[in-house]
């Protein structure tokens, strides 16, 4: 195990956890508008997949958009400012919680229309291939999204053109309140890979290292011209679909408790300590550093101005046309 | 996504909010006709607030949670309708209609025609207009005007809880595909409702409601803009400007006669519509009025719409974009200036 | 082998072949407007699948719409009159060649938007199930259609709800000029069934009896509550995608010739004679009868009136609304 | 489906039909910019007539045949555009856009905005208007007006071969998503074209073309209706009625100033549009003109459109449905009566 990579993985997982905890706190205090779809429990899947990428690789995410850019290495200021609807947000206050995409780290959007990101990631891979680069495209999507037609169309296109893309399913067992066991007609979504003649892998999403290893091999395969893969991480969200949706009764308390015992951050920390890869002091220091980053991001956001209402009219077009003769 | 406020179930409620009124409409029609059933995402958990108690009363066969697959789900509803069922699909937020546009336009709207009357497609697609909710550009659409150019569809956009209930009941009984758009900004509005009396109150499709009579200006408003227009009318009434407010209720087919009659009386028209200005239903109203009642017009017609930009997340940018009592008042004033 | 069923299968195959030959002839004579997508070569697949159904079962077809209703037992008059744009056509002249759906034989539409029929067949199966009937729904679609998202969404929905539907792919190796081997990322489309946990079967589409046996078992399974199946018939269209498209060069002459040797009608005829199931006289008589039917249908169509132009405004709505107060 | 007439390839042609002009536009832009590429169904076989010779010149990497998967294909184009490519997607017949509506509206049109300018989506979606071709209701759509209510898209509807070529070139160079609608009824029209001179002739988006000046009536026409309107204008010119014909070329964003200027001069407006009347672009033109130039209007505005029914297969039912020289003449006459 490479010490520095592992410390970075740990740092990013903690960063996601703490960033979202801070956001929930700000929401409770009324400093945040809009819904929040949080990720606790899924950090291992997200970070394991992201760190298997190179910095210049592409990534496409989902409505549950906080973890992916952080996993890919985005700095927190622009993300927090976006959540707080400030003009300094990554999207200048136009996107909000479902769209924390930081293009500077290769993120090509976090789209809130479920399933709509799969063709985009496919297209980024096509672009990478056509431009003769060896970039790879990573596509996050949920178990719910796997039932959308775009899943099928994208995997088929990627397979026939041997595109460098890794489809990564965060199977957290539910689409809002709807269990995958009732809406996905196959036990393992990864099994569908066979229908596209591409490799499919099921991984333990609570084990960041397993995720990393498997995604890394899929990324390497893609990078060297071997074409796409489908990876399914079995994972779980510890909190509700969105903050505040506490009245739903679609899953048993015991199930949640069971999964909470497999917290990917705790598991990874224990393992790093057990195997003596990183010292307790270094891990604590990393957590402290993340805490400071979060504090800094909140300060940055708080002291940033609101967008000017007139900015609502910016960024509709890239090329403004002169009409009138 | 915020999905508040939610409704309480049950026939004991004497005042129903918008979503509970729709719930009752569905429940009553399901009781009346065994072919009626509902399908949608997270219905059983009543996530969006209009399906409380349905699962308990009607069971999982008639209250079906669906996978995320809008084209497949709507197409499945169409197929079921062709063999005698009457599905009501809750598509939840209106942009989720887009992945199913082909099924809606090429199949639902056209099948009866293409097959020379051999079949019909009695489905209702419910979709909420989730604007003014801090949900950013992908969730805030108001796309009823999209489907105006598609013959064969009926499009209903109610303006309050009471008419919404009666319109939904009629839509369910109608033999054609009906798109039913529900304005999120009305969810907290409510209607007094005595269940025994009201259970069979339907509101006909294709008929406008004159919400307020007036002599000086005709306002045609849609969805939550009707309420705003009523307030604007009230305000101007105090200044001696008499405003007639018309709620088309069904925008396709449109009860244009009621609108023309009013404009022939007032000589002035303002159309209010929370959709983007270009390509809006409000534009269609202006076109029809000016084609047909030009001679009666005393002033330039006006549209009050959302400007042609996307909906931003930040509340400071979003909040000024939609029609408001003030902007409606201003537009009416311009017509009488 | 049951003599009468086989004779009927033979009759229907010949009916499709002759009906289309007549249509091509009428087109050449200028008696027909519009395009014609014909089926020669695919009659075995179509008829084998259709006769596995009961009369009251449902069926959904495609733009290549002539064979399916004939296979399902439609009479030819309304179909020919429709092709000839007469008011007595099945669709009263509104649909034409891509839409020969005869609802009286359980056809629920022949849709010309590729892939759009899959959800409709799925829904008919849902309706059959909810109404407590034991009807089954048969869904025809092409190799091209199999790449559409509706394929995936439909099969998944049918599988989770155990709907009585048989998805039947007429894999004629091409979508217009585009080879399935370049656009379908798996050797056998039927292999995708595994991704939905449903049975998948590959059959020889030139062998009407093999098609019949396999589809019959899938229909029986569906009827008895066993849920959906996917059947892929390997077949070939002997003519071009549409009549007149003769300039395309996407397939080798030798390939066409090879397949023509496996004409499903000739193969079936030889087999019936070889095995002594039906006498040559009976087969000839059936062909003669079909010839007479075709002649009758053409006469019927020719002597039928054109639609009144005002009929263009009929059938837009089932319920006309009274607007105006 | 009939896919005639088809074009001949090559720079030696001195007169180009509509499809060959589009072919040349693509070829020239592909030569000019290595990021431009084309994708679509059956392009390599030149099935629809606008891709002759492209495969030979540019090879299969830049001339890509695609599976039937409109959402996937258009989404793939969007993704490629986001990383620096400039895809031109030939969707062939316009209703095949419907399965991809979500990608077009929620992703192509909105991404730049949602991400605060971090990205842009330079794609061109070509789609033909295949009406008046005996293809029945599912293939005969003219759906450009559908997308009018979606900010972020540009919509081009050329009216002849010459402008189509220049507009397509500009569309390919534009950094925003452009929907490019090609009227089947123009396929046989042609343009004289000296390749050396013409290769860099672009036509700006967002500018209307005044096709004919006139003093009495303004006609705003779209697609093949421009040619019909020119004939109507000629006919009426012989009777002393002077008609100005405007071709917006780009219907979104619309060059409304050119239209207003004309109406202020003529005082009369007729909008001609082969789409269904309700929800039409013609209606949007009337709305804008009456809002802005009401005081100049001397007569009721008129729309000449296709009535609100589906397109039937039988030629006897189809042929009378679309705008014709006669119906345009009649409408113009009414405005000057
Ligand atoms: C096309 C579409 N349909 C419905 C929704 C509403 N919705 C938002 S998130 C969600 C659940 C998605 O489930 P999954 O893909 O498993 O992702 P998860 O939320 O579990 O991360 C739904 C139904 C949507 N945003 N887009
Ligand atoms: C959604 C859609 N895209 C494109 C077309 C144009 N088109 C008509 S038939 C066809 C090929 C279909 O291939 P397949 O499904 O294999 O059926 P086949 O024609 O071989 O019977 C295409 C591309 C269409 N009708 N619908
Ligand atoms: Mg999930
Ligand atoms: Mg085929």
From TrEMBL, chains A, C:
It catalyses: N(6)-[(R)-lipoyl]-L-lysyl-[protein] + pyruvate + H(+) = N(6)-[(R)-S(8)-acetyldihydrolipoyl]-L-lysyl-[protein] + CO2. SUPFAM superfamilies: Thiamin diphosphate-binding fold (THDP-binding). Its EC number is 1.2.4.1. Residues 11-309 form the Dehydrogenase E1 component domain. One of its GO terms (biological process) is pyruvate decarboxylation to acetyl-CoA. One of its GO terms (molecular function) is pyruvate dehydrogenase (acetyl-transferring) activity. Its cofactor is thiamine diphosphate. The keyword Transport does not apply. Keywords: Oxidoreductase, Pyruvate, Thiamine pyrophosphate. The pyruvate dehydrogenase complex catalyzes the overall conversion of pyruvate to acetyl-CoA and CO(2). It contains multiple copies of three enzymatic components: pyruvate dehydrogenase (E1), dihydrolipoamide acetyltransferase (E2) and lipoamide dehydrogenase (E3). This is Pyruvate dehydrogenase E1 component alpha subunit. It comes from Novosphingobium marinum. The lineage of its organism: Bacteria, Pseudomonadati, Pseudomonadota, Alphaproteobacteria, Sphingomonadales.
């Amino acid at each position: 195990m490479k010490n520095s990579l592992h410390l970075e993985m740990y740092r990013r997982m903690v960063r996601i956890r703490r960033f979202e905890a801070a956001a929930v706190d700000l929401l409770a205090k009324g400093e945040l508008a809009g819904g929040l779809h949080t990720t606790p429990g899924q950090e291992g899947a997200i970070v394991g997949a992201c760190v298997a990428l190179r910095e210049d690789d592409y990534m496409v995410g989902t409505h549950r958009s906080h973890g992916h850019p952080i996993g890919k290495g985005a700095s927190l200021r622009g993300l927090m400012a976006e959540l707080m609807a400030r003009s300094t947000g990554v999207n200048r206050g136009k996107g909000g919680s479902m769209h924390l995409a930081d293009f500077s780290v290769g993120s090509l959007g976090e789209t809130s229309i479920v399933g709509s990101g799969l063709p985009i990631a496919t297209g980024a891979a096509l672009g990478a291939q056509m431009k003769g680069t060896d970039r790879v495209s990573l596509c996050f999507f949920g178990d719910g999204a796997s039932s959308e037609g775009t899943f099928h169309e994208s995997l088929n296109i990627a397979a026939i053109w041997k595109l460098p893309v890794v489809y990564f399913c965060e199977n957290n067992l539910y689409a809002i309140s709807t269990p995958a066991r009732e809406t996905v007609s196959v036990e393992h979504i990864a099994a569908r890979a066979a229908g596209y003649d591409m490799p499919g892998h099921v991984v333990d999403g609570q084990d960041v290292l397993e995720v990393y290893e498997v995604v890394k091999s899929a990324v390497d395969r893609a990078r060297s011209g071997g074409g796409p893969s489908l990876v399914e991480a079995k994972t779980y969200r510890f909190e509700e679909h969105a903050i505040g949706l506490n009245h739903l009764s679609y899953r048993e308390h015991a199930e949640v408790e069971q999964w909470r015992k497999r917290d990917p951050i705790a598991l990874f920390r224990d393992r790093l300590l057990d195997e003596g890869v990183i010292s307790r002091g270094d891990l604590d220091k990393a957590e402290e550093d993340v805490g400071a980053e979060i504090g800094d991001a909140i300060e940055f956001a708080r002291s940033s101005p609101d967008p000017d209402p007139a900015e609502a009219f910016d960024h509709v077009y890239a090329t403004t046309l002169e009409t009138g003769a | 996504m915020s999905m508040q406020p939610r409704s309480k179930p049950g026939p004991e409620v004497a005042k129903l909010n918008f979503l509970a009124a729709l719930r009752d409409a569905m429940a009553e029609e399901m009781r009346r006709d065994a072919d009626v059933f509902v399908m949608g995402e997270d219905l059983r958990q009543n996530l969006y607030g209009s399906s409380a108690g349905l699962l308990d009363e009607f069971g999982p066969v008639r209250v079906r949670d669906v996978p995320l697959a809008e084209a497949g789900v709507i197409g499945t509803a169409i197929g079921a309708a062709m063999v005698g069922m009457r599905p009501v699909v809750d598509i939840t937020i209106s942009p989720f209609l887009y992945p199913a546009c082909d099924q809606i336009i090429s199949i639902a709207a056209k099948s009866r025609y293409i097959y020379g009357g051999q079949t019909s497609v009695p489905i209702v697609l419910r979709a909420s207009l989730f604007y003014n909710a801090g949900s950013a550009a992908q969730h805030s659409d108001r796309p009823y005007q999209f489907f105006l150019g598609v013959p064969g569809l009926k499009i209903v956009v109610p303006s309050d809880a009471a008419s919404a209930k009666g319109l939904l009941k009629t839509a369910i009984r109608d033999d054609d595909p009906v798109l039913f758009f529900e304005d999120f900004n009305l969810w907290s509005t409510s209607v007094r409702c005595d269940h025994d009396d009201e259970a069979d109150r339907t509101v006909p499709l294709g008929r406008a409601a004159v919400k307020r009579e007036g002599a000086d200006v005709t306002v045609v408003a849609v969805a939550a803009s009707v309420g705003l227009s009523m307030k604007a009318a009230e305000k101007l009434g105090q200044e001696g400007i008499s405003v007639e407010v018309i709620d088309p209720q069904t925008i396709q087919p449109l009860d244009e006669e009621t609108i023309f009659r009013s404009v022939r009386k007032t000589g002035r028209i303002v159309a209010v519509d929370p959709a983007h200005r270009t390509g809006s239903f409000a534009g269609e109203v202006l076109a029809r009025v000016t084609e047909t009642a030009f001679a009666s017009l005393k002033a330039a017609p006006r549209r009050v719409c959302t400007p042609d930009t996307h909906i931003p997340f930040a509340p400071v940018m979003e909040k000024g974009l939609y029609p408001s009592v003030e902007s409606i008042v201003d537009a009416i004033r311009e017509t009488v200036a």
